[in-house]
Amino acid sequence: MNAQLINGKSISDSIREELRYEVELLRQKGVTPGLVVILVGEDPASQVYVRNKAKACEQLGYYSEVIKIPAETTQDELLRVIEQYNKQANIHGILVQLPLPKHIEEKAIIDAISVEKDVDGFHPVSVGNLMIGDDALLPCTPSGVIELLKRTGNHPSGKHAVVIGRSNIVGKPVSMLLLRENATVTICHSRTPNLPEMARQADILIVAVGVAKLVKKEWIKPGAVVIDVGMNRLPDGKLCGDVDYDDVLETAGWVTPVPGGVGPMTITMLMANTLKSARRFSQ
Ligand code: NAP
Hints:
six-stranded parallel sheet, binds NADP nicotinamide-adenine-dinucleotide phosphate, alpha/beta, Rossmann fold, 2 domains, about 40% helix, single chain
């Protein structure tokens, strides 16, 4: 069998087309979605992410602000900045780029963002709403994974999904979303024995670990859908996923490449969240 490629770039492009149309409708009502991205310090990878988010806003006609704050900023100063944007009416989404410098407590910052503007979906109330199935702004990478499945005709309903990784950012929320979509979900992590055997039971295998090329063809049930969330930098500078892409191609039914799979979906889902928030504020 030769796996079909799940092209995250083209799926992301078509979602952005849909968003552009909806943004236009909202603008006709006098509302422009607004996003502020706050960057503390000068981490080079974070600078790239922030630039890409601002670019996406520009392409879709959003209002955006990028706030760059020196690394020495105190937690209280950062909290005051967030408070200001919680109140600012033309801003519908607030994103604080992680990681933060060590002297700032991440949780205190995430908790301070107004739940209504929590476009990253990391606030405990957003997480709780996801858990109990209430309407919420959903975390971007996990909701991007669900879109990839649905838009390739691989609806999770009735399938056995195995998720490797249990982080708060990817593993746990994607498991909750899969459950909400009526999959039967198994969550694995670093203490799971017989990992290849567990993975081999998956109709849908989601890998969010951070270990380059961990998953080999022996881990894949023939025809399974394999979604690789991992983004690892190899010594030669190239990006690679947690799945050994070339190795699994013969066994899997569908597979995401890295780059070009899950990655492009994350910012697109951030844009979708900002639009959703703007729509709520406009009602
Ligand atoms: P994380 O917080 O480090 O969590 C990694 C998870 O993998 C943990 O639950 C850990 O288990 C588990 N794990 C580690 N080594 C393992 C092993 N050998 N076997 C089985 N499980 C193992 O990472 P994360 O934030 O979820 O990110 C995971 C990957 O996704 C990274 O490569 C990251 O760069 C990438 N990522 C990509 C995007 C995107 O937009 N494409 C977004 C976010 C993250 P324990 O809990 O037992 O320690």
